[in-house]
Task: inverse folding
């Protein structure tokens, strides 16, 4: 979005004045309202849509992101990895960036994909339950995000949507299957080896450890599966827009063009241990020195914590809403 | 402060999968617009796919198509008729310029002897170098040096207020800023609303008593800025090039800034409810907000915004 010099200076002066004033009356650390819904794509293993700053009256506007995860079975021998793989991709809808050429759109998509992929699928965050049969089969988790419209602060929206979709992801329960030769071994009569389903069922993990397991089947169970492991550890990101000496959150497009320098910080808040800084990105032009960055990380953590707890309570609320909805539907039947 | 809200609940359309009418109405559904009274009875709203009239008696215009000898609306809007031509003027559309309209635009490109201006129309508007006021007197001829320093007048991204002067053969509009009230914009911020919400008024320059000037562009671009006194605007000898093409803002105090953002939020709220904007409505809304003593951003909360709209509607 191009701005005139007068608009730019109007926004910058407003941000730096005392008290700081923004075009829509927010304070520096105010977010626009965020609407979130999980379970929006019935065919995905987990999905969420999120919109920042929509008109509360159902009008248009706002940064809208749709995120969905899909699990596929992979052979470890071929391209898969033992314990599962995760792949992330971000697609920008051309309607979100109507003034970008297809080439520029590809570049933008690529940038976003890289940032998300490198942050979310860092080994430290790898979900533990993506393996099916050790050394043979595993799940490939693909996380796809689509940006449907962009009115500023798209990175925070992407990370929040990704977190919500991963939170919502259910991994189907599997049970290992093995071929059992008859006790008598080769001397046995011509009777062929019979396929046998492992009778033990009390622990899915125990059956997985069987080294002889060659294949698996899906356990028939009432829900869609178990939660993706380590789901409380998925990070949230916070973008600090810098107008030296201060910073603000959730920039609208004019503010974004008036203050192009940004720092993106991704934090994860695992239940068991300390807060972890998962990623730092400096976006836009301009430079930062170490003391500045230290200070920004400290304040960024505070904001991220707020965002994290707000998002968590919203996600739990969504879980309750959906189980209630499912129950109602079941009762109606 | 971070707040999460729910998505607005989707309405259940499953009950409306087939069009149903009340038994009494069923016969009137195919009411023909043949007689003139139907057209004269004020604006008729259509939905896409709605039957308008027979194609044997009428000609189809913009926003309609013919199927099985019936003229059918292809957009949602108001039906208009000129003699035998039936058109539908869509509710949501880009700006359709008319000569003499006041518009607010943004420079997108500097070309030889002309600027391209985004004015929310289907094509970029054109502002010729010969239709702006050049520094050093209004009635000066343009020189070659002016052509070489066009960016000192307007550069990419600059906002300006102008009037539609004429049309080119391809339908693009030509603008002019040959008035002291027109020219570059500063000291404020822009709000964009659907063009249909800005009606033709006696004056599109509105001054609110809270020290805020408004320029309601007919193209839906609204400029909200600090109030400038009439006498300052003119300058001593009628035209002050320095001030007219300046990129620097004046000092704007906190109260004015708050008023500007409050007005811009009110405009966004009103446009979200699709109410037409006039100076009177804005003034009313501003007074209401001051009376309620709410913060600027609180307007975006559902209940407060709804209360404002209800009070505006009640006034009529």
Result:
């Amino acid at each position: 979005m191009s701005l005139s010099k007068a608009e730019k200076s109007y926004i910058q002066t407003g941000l730096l004045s005392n008290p700081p004033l923004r075009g829509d009356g927010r304070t520096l650390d105010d977010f626009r309202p965020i609407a979130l819904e999980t379970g929006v794509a019935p065919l995905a293993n987990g999905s969420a849509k999120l919109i920042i700053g929509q008109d509360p009256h159902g009008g248009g506007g706002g940064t809208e992101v749709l995120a969905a995860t899909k699990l596929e079975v992979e052979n470890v021998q071929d391209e898969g990895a033992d314990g599962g793989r995760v792949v992330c991709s971000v697609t920008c809808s051309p309607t979100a960036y109507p003034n970008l050429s297809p080439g520029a759109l590809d570049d933008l998509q690529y940038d976003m994909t890289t940032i998300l992929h490198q942050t979310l699928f860092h080994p430290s965050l790898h979900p533990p339950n993506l393996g099916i049969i050790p050394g043979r089969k595993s799940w490939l988790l693909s996380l796809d995000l689509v940006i449907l419209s962009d009115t500023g602060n798209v990175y925070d929206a992407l990370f929040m949507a990704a977190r919500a979709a991963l939170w919502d992801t259910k991994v189907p329960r599997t049970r290992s299957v093995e071929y059992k030769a008859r006790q008598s071994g080769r001397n046995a009569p011509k009777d062929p080896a019979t396929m046998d389903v492992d009778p033990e069922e009390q622990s899915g993990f125990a059956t997985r450890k069987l080294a002889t397991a060659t294949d698996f089947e899906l356990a028939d169970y009432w829900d869609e599966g178990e939660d993706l492991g380590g789901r409380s550890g998925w990070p949230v990101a916070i973008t600090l827009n810098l107008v030296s000496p201060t910073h603000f959150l959730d920039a609208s497009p004019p503010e974004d063009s008036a203050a192009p320098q940004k720092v993106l910080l991704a934090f994860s808040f695992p239940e068991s241990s300390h807060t972890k800084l998962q990623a730092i990105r400096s976006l836009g032009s301009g430079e930062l020195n170490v003391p500045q960055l230290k200070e920004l990380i400290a304040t960024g953590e505070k904001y991220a914590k707020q965002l994290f707890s707000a998002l968590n309570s919203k996600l739990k609320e969504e879980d309750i809403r959906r189980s209630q909805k499912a129950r109602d539907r079941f009762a109606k039947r | 402060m971070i707040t999460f809200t729910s998505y607005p609940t989707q309405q259940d359309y499953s009950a409306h999968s087939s069009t149903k009418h009340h038994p009494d109405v069923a016969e009137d559904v195919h009411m023909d617009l043949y007689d003139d009274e139907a057209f004269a009875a004020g604006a008729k709203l259509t939905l896409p796919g709605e039957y308008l009239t027979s194609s044997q008696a009428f000609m189809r215009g913009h926003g309609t198509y013919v199927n099985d000898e019936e003229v059918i609306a292809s957009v949602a809007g108001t039906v208009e008729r000129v003699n035998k031509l039936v058109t539908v003027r869509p509710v949501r559309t880009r700006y359709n310029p008319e000569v003499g309209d006041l518009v607010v635009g943004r420079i997108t490109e500097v070309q030889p002897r002309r600027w391209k201006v985004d004015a929310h129309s289907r094509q970029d508007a054109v502002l010729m170098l010969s239709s702006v006021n050049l520094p050093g007197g209004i009635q000066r001829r343009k020189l070659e040096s002016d052509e070489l320093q066009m960016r000192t007048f307007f550069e990419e991204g600059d906002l300006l207020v102008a009037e539609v002067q004429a049309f080119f053969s391809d339908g693009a509009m030509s603008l002019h800023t040959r008035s002291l009230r027109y020219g570059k914009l500063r000291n404020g911020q822009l709000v964009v609303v659907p063009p249909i919400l800005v009606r033709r008024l006696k004056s599109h320059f509105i001054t609110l008593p809270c020290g805020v000037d408004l320029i309601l562009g007919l193209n839906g671009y609204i400029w909200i800025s600090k109030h400038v006194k009439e006498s300052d605007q003119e300058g001593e000898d009628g035209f002050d090039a320095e001030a007219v093409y300046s990129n620097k803002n004046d000092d704007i105090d906190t109260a004015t800034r708050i008023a500007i953002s409050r007005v811009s939020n009110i405009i966004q709220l009103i446009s979200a409810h699709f109410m037409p904007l006039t100076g009177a409505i804005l003034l009313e809304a501003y007074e209401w907000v001051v009376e309620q003593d709410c913060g600027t951003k609180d307007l975006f909360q559902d209940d407060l915004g709804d209360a404002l709209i209800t009070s505006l509607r009640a006034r009529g």
